[in-house]
Amino acid sequence: MTFKRVVVTGMGALTPIGNTVTEYWQGLVNGVSGCAPITKFDAEKFRTRFACEIKGFDVNNFIPRQEARKMDPFTQYAIVAADEAIKDSGLDLDKINKNKVGVIWGSGIGGLKTFEEEMIYFGKGDGTPKINPFFIPKMIADSASGQISIRHGFRGPNYVTVSACSSANNAIIDAFNYIRLGRINVCVSGGSEAAVTIASVGGFTAMRAMSERNDDPSTASRPYDKDRDGFVVGEGAGSIILEEYEHAKARGARIYAELIGGGFSSDAYHITAPHPEGYGALLSMQDALEDANIKPEEVDYINTHGTSTPIGDPQELKAIVDLFGEHAYKMNISSTKSMTGHLLGGAGAIEAVASILALEHQIVPPTINCFTPDPEIDSKLNLTFNKAQNREMNIVLSNGFGFGGHNATVIFRKI
After folding, report:
1. Which residues share a beta bridge with 303?
2. Residue 370 appears among annotated catalytic residues
3. Assessment of whether the complete model's pTM goes beyond 0.70
4. Domains of the chain, CATH where assigned
5. Where is the Ketosynthase family 3 (KS3) domain (predicted)?
């Protein structure tokens, strides 16, 4: 069968380095670190006392207070990013067929803060279950897509994908498939996470997965640096409006890029560690290239998963070299998590936005905080260290990998 073309007509972002797409892009090209001491709770006794929090954000500027109280922060973030993307798309919500508009979102954890607060409150009581009646609808991950749908009256497919840190890429690919199969015309997609919480920071530090560079948090997220010691948790949301090409063209929409392929794989190896040879990462990228019907040498830039962990970073780069061969040394590669931290289930969404903006502006955002490149990493790779680079680009690829061995890759093309 002939698939329909799918394009990006709107974007939204709420990130640790900018609360709009414009601010986010400025933070990326200027190499801004979003990492600072934690303000959301008292982290004094934690081994890790910093994170990439969003800054200067007041939800009541976007959602009425009474409504916001019924939502976990991850849902609030989702609504704000989705609203920006919808507005940016120029969609006339009074004229489009809302039965053909879906919302497919990603979140790796969902309402962790809500769950945490309710259990702490319960633990301080006499054992009587005095639970907030909104506890369950605030906590469940699908509340994000549900609330976006209710807010705008979108009646197409509506759900949240949960595949750890590949969740947003998974959601974007699902949205892509619904549109190219002709099931819907438009889909609001992306991902969000609000995991700067006691349980999250405590849990990840117990695993020894997070950086403990408390003396210099702004440089703690340092993918590919010899002295990297773990990831930095981030929070926020990213959203893209995916639209069937002819539908977008008929209404005179601004088109940022075309989504041309998506790939999946499983490491089938370990619950938290990536495959030691990067085999799952290779399969995901290979599947995406085949889906897009392009050759490896057509890719100009890869936005890596690149979390700043000692074990994860080299495996992904090994997979890139194994798959792309000599072309791996001709591409730009960078990890924007060096600036935003790791948004977990929302990471793929803000990285998709970064990839699309890179195509639009023909600028590769940098991997910051590299002071001593890891000697175990191939020095011939252009990892775009510390400073953005101008480059002609036609195709960009973005990776997202997660605990459980979940891998998802998306590919965008300039249009």
Report:
1. 334, 398
2. no
3. yes
4. 7-250 (3.40.47.10), 263-413 (3.40.47.10)
5. 3-414
